[in-house]
Design brief:
Length: 119
């Protein structure tokens, strides 16, 4: 996947959905727990930027795989992708974050699996 070879890049929500649905990458949501609980992309893995900045490792399910990082609007995900790339991960972030994800009609689920909202 050439997108991941040049360091942290950016992808659209549609590209992120395609890459994570076909299994070629893992979707990593870096928002805080209340935001995650309100609504996240199905299949995403949760690891807040605050924990990444403190040195937390990627979850086992994301280790060694390309990572597509998402947050609310794209600011935290860009920071997280940069940190992860500096640590050797193949990481890109989603332009516009979950706001754009939802605007494009992609699914959002709350912590119970029901229709979620972007907090």
């Amino acid at each position: 996947m050439s997108l991941f070879r040049r360091g942290p890049g950016r992808v659209t929500p549609a590209e992120a959905a395609r890459m994570t649905t076909d299994g070629s990458a893992v979707l990593l949501d870096v928002r805080e727990l209340p935001e995650w609980n309100a609504g996240h992309a199905p299949g995403a893995i949760h690891l807040p930027l605050s924990r990444i900045a403190e040195g937390a490792s990627l979850p086992d399910s994301a280790t060694g795989r390309p990572v597509v990082v998402i947050c609310r609007s794209g600011n935290r995900s860009r920071q997280a992708a940069r940190i992860l790339a500096d640590r050797g991960a193949r990481a890109v972030d989603v332009v516009g974050g979950m706001i754009s994800w939802a605007t494009e009609g992609l699914p959002v689920r709350d912590r119970r699996g029901a229709a979620g909202t972007i907090a």
